[in-house]
Amino acid sequence: MRILCHAAQSLRNERGNHATKKPAKASVNLFEKDGAGYLVVHTEKSKSGKGEKFALKANLNRCLAKFVHEGKLTIEFKEPSVNIMISKADPGQLKKLLSAMKTSFEGKSLVGVGVLASATNKPIKIGKTTKINILSRDDYKTKLSKKAGIPAELEEFRCHGLGMKQIDLRLFKLRHLTVLDMTRNNLSTLNPKLFQLRLKALILSDNKLDERAFRPLKSSPIADSLQKLDLSSNQLTSLPSLCTLPKLSSLIIDKNQIRRLPARLPNSLTILSAKENKIFFTEFARFHRFQSLDLSDNPFSMLHKFKVDTSKIPVAKTLAQVAAAKILKHKLPINPQKVPTRLNSLLESIRFCPCGEPLSDRKFMFLSGYDVRRYTSNTDAVAPMPNNFVIPQLEFCCSSGCFAKFSTTLQFEEDPPEPGSDEDGMQVD
Ligand SMILES: [Zn+2]
């Protein structure tokens, strides 16, 4: 057993002071000679090919094992008086090491236990490679040669500006990958296996992706883990459903052709940047608060006269609609992977009255003004329109009472048309 980890060493002097060396990538293993056990530490910097050997028999002050479950362990040796601090190790391997060291400490042999490494020579691989940045074709050859492959423990992979049409298939096998960044490539489709990864951050800016690539998103493992999604500078005209991403906190979709933002956003979403799109109006829930919201360089050309008032059209509420609204009202936990697709899409389409009530139908519609400053905690909010923080937002109310109240207090105030300007003001391009 060889443990790939980080290791730091500190010297204890008579007064108990420690002089600590910085943690370095390391490989730690156990070795036995003439019946006596040793801990062997190789670091990238260690000059000797044999590494540093520490006898174990009756030579331990103590082991600080409180954080073994986090991959950390401190071992205090008597002679020499040093502490070895191990971090970023596999917790399972550390537990094995700990119990094997106890056996060695008591002077018993570890032969046959399956934890000894055969030699003390410097291993080929030292420490974990948790991050790889690829910035050129040469990088691809040297850092990911066919022989070395992609390290199984990789956590972050970035590959920028290489014109890649596909994501490297080997990445889909990684169990610890949490950040995948494919900025400035040539992706127009996405392998469905991507959505099986449990990523925290997916960065696909500056590619050729449209919404079709994200169809598998909402009912896949990635939906449960994703916290940051950057799809700026692509070819999206709409967005996939986002309310099934319970941890999403940052969404960057600048420089696309998006016309409408989803009405329902995950409660966790606090950063939204949708600059340079084709958005005419918003539909945000009034209770949603952003940390930062940037909607600059969108047309926001919705006017009162363009709205089609659906409130006069008689529509019978279905039981499912009523149920969906109740689910949201009482914040019942729903696993989108377990409920029927129809109920899911119903839940995604539910709007909220400015009073906060989820709506089972869409009556009492009006065009309100949405002042971005009121809904962002950031004090330096960006004006979505030139010198104007108020954008048109489509609003539905739960009752005639709410309609009477909010349609007066939140009414969108249109700018008077400029003399000589185009009458309908709906020009997009
Ligand atoms: Zn209401």
The domain tally reads 3
The whole-number mean of residue pLDDT values reads 87
Proportion in helices: 10-25%
CATH class of the largest domain reads Alpha Beta
CATH topology of the largest domain: Leucine-rich repeat, LRR (right-handed beta-alpha superhelix)
Low-confidence stretches: 425-429
Alpha-beta classification: alpha/beta
Q: Characterize the largest beta sheet: strand count, sense, and whether it forms a barrel.
A: 8 strands, antiparallel
Pfam families: LRR_1, LRR_4, PH_LRR1
Protein name: Oidioi.mRNA.OKI2018_I69.chr2.g5678.t1.cds
Domain PIF1/LRR1 pleckstrin homology: 1-109
Keywords: Leucine-rich repeat, Nucleus, Repeat
